[in-house]
Each structure stands twice: as C-alpha cells, then as structure tokens.
Amino acid sequence: MTELRVDLSSPVPVYEQIRSQVAALVAVGALAPGDRLPASRDLARDLGIAVGTAQRAYRELETSGVVTSRRRVGTVVAEPPAGGLRGGAEPVGEPQRPADGPTSDTGGLVDEARAFVARAREQGLSDEAVLAFVRGALLPERRGG
Amino acid sequence: MFGLSGMILPAAVVVLVLVPGAVALLVAVLLAGRPEGHDATVAAARRHEARISAAAAALSIGLAVGLSSRAVDPWGPPGVLLGLAPFAAVLMICLARIVGESRWPRPAGEVRTAPLVRRSVPDQGGWRLVTFLGTTGALGVAFVVFGLTAAADGRSVEGVERQVTYPGDPGTEVVSAAGPYPGWEFGGPALVLLVLVVVAVLVALRVVTRRPPIGLLSPAQDDAIRRTSASRVLAGAQLWVGLGAAGHLAFAGGALNSTGGMTGGLVSLVLALVLVIGSVVIAAPALLYRRVEAAGTAPRAASTGSPA
Questions:
Q1: Which of B212, B218, B116 is nearest to A77 (CA)?
Q2: In terms of CA atoms, which chain B residue is nearest residue A7?
Q3: Residue B151 in contact with residue B177, Cβ under 8 Å?
Q4: Distance from CA of A140 to the nearest CA of B (A)
Q5: What's the pLDDT tens digit per position in B274-291?
Q6: Could you tell me the pLDDT band of residue B142, with boundaries at 50, 70 and 90?
Q7: DSSP states along B205-219
Q8: With a threshold of 0.95, does the pTM exceed it?
Q9: CA distance linking residue B56 with residue B207, whole number of Å
Q10: What tens digit of pLDDT does each residue of A56-91 get?
Q11: Which of B115, B130, B139, B167 could form a disulfide with B219 if both were Cys (CB 3.0 to 4.6 A apart)?
C-alpha cells in the first residue's frame, strides 16, 4: 500500500512534499496511469493539514501533467505522453522537467535507479546522501544547459 | 385469536436476548484469547476498537431488552415495541460506533503519513454490505406484502374455511382471523425504522471510512482495523435485522397456519429459521480481526499519536 509522508518541520512546503512524492511514485511506476488518488479533502484529513494545501499539491501535479482531474472520477494518474514528456506547463520559475512517469524507453532507468538505491543502502548511506549523489550528478548537465 | 402469541412471544424474546448475548460472550472470549505478537501500538489500537465494539454491542442489547420487556407499550397496540426493538438496536450500534470513531487520536506530530488510496464505503463494506442491503430490501418487500395481505385492523390475517357439519352438507364459509400478523400496525413503523437503519448504517460506515489513519500503524495495519470496524458494524446490523425479520416472519407464519394458509405459514417459518441461522453465521466471523498483510506488519518509524 502506497503512502505519503510529510514533515511539517521541514523547510520544504508541505504541498511541495506531496507533489514531489506523488510525482516520484508515478515515475517509478508505484502509481500507474488510471490509479485514483484520494480526494484532496480526504488526504488533508488523513494528514491533518489544511485542505488548501492538498488542493495546491494536486493543482501543481495537474499542471505538470502527472495527474488529471475528472468530474465524478476525481484525481487520477495521467497517461504518459507519447513523446515521453509530461505535457502542460511547468510551475512558474521551475526548469523544464523530463517525464515524471515511466515510459517504454525509461523502464530500464527505473530498474537502474532501484539498483543504485539498493547498493547505496547496502553501504549504509542515508536517503539524503543518495539524493545528494543524484543532485550532484545532475549539476554538470544543468551547467551545460 | 392471539393464542399463538403466547408461545411465540417468549420464544422471540429469548432469541432476541440470548443470541446476541451469546455472540457478546464469544466476543469477550475471543478478545481475551487473542494471539499476542503485535507491538504495543497495534495492541492499543485493537483494544480501542474492541472497546467501541463491546460498547456498541452492550448498548444495543440493553436497548433491545429494555424495549422487548415492556409489558405495555406507551403507544400503539401491544407488541409493536417488541417488533421495533431489533431495529432500534441497530440504530444504537451505529450511534455508538459514530461516537467511538471520533475518539481515535487525530493526526499529530511533525511527521505524518497517509495511505495514497481512495477509500469508499462499498470497498470497506464489501460482501457484508451487499448482504445487509439485500436483507433489508427483502424485509421491506415482505413488510409491504404483509401489509397488503393483512386484515382491515392491520394486525391480523383472515382466512376462509368451509365447515361441513354432516355428510352431504354443502358447507358454510367461515372467516377466521389470527394474529399477531405484521400488517401495517406492526409493519408500518418497522418499515420506517428499517429505512432509518439503512441510513444509519451507511452513515456509520462513512465515519469509519473517513477516519484518519491511526498514528504509528502501517497503512496495512490501519486498513485491517478499519475493515474490522466496518465488518463489525455490518455484522451487528445484520444480526439484529436478521433476528427482527425472523421474529416478524415467525409471527406471520404462526398466524397464517392458524387461518389455514399452511403453505405460506410454513414458508414464513422456514425463512425465519434460515434468517436466524444465516445472520448468526454471517455475523460470527466479524468477531475476528481482519488479517494484516505480511508486507505491512512493520510499524512505521516516524509518526505520532498512538491510541490510548
């Protein structure tokens, strides 16, 4: 059963924590296209946060094409776009992101990412250290862009 | 005319009191003998759930016994309260559950978790909800049929018999009546209460479904306790509605037998027996806690707000 975890003491806003976790779960395939997310009101109640916070997270996810909102059905994970990129505008001020969800040509990357995380944990590295590795690996690419 | 009630009434009271009492006793036995091996938070959550269930069962039994044992009804013909008691007991179960669910700890602490799944009343209710709605629907139809076939007084049924006094006598038609029969006098209030029962059960299930997750429990553990709560609400409702339906059918069957409607009477009595046995069989497994999937048995590392 997939779960979200938010840290109210984190400097990262709660809505961003929700957004990034849902996007990550979609990216690794833990959430598949068509999966229904809980209503923002229910998610807010479960986490004990304001409804507006959950709604903002869902809005951001919808803007980046990770989820879609449908009347009666609610919020569901969107189908990945044919080109491998999530369509729609990125949040203002953020760089263009690659696909948030796995596509046919990124399936191998997900496996490699899992293997990388597994190896890092075997070596006793914390999650933050693993993320620092990834962020560090992304830096040259950003400079080049 | 009401001679049969002399036999059926005590039997109905015995069924109404003893069967739920036996179930409650079984609850106590199972709770006392539940296997250990869970961490303290899971045990505390189970105890809290058990307290809600036990309170709901005790209050419903108390209300049913109180209503059934009244010698004189404050309103309406004698026996109406007895017929309504099982349905009133369901309302009490739902009320106790709604109050009890509000006693779970709210999300607290800096780190909070929530399952990323959409919960719904049909999902939580499962086959028990379908069975319960089917039973109440069938009982509603039965009340309408009884109401339409009852005599003008709404509490007895009439039958026509041809009496022959000597060989060759063409005979005379004799109209006989027997009761109590769940016509509109009995079935009308019961039908109204049955609608309230369905609404109350759905509201109680909605409260269970929307309860925030319990702190320090894994999503699977929380889901198991939530499903246990839902199944116990439905089990209690099924048991009382089944017993109430059986009582009404038994009275109907007895009255029909007395007026010569042997087939209808026999069918009613058999249905009553099936309802009693079936409701007990359906309700009994809800005494057991829902199993937690092995993958979700590990308690969460960071979250607060454990139940008392």
A1: B116
A2: B111
A3: yes
A4: 34
A5: 999 999 899 888 877 776
A6: very high
A7: HHHHHHSPPPTTS-H
A8: no
A9: 15
A10: 999 999 999 999 998 888 999 998 776 554 543 344
A11: B115
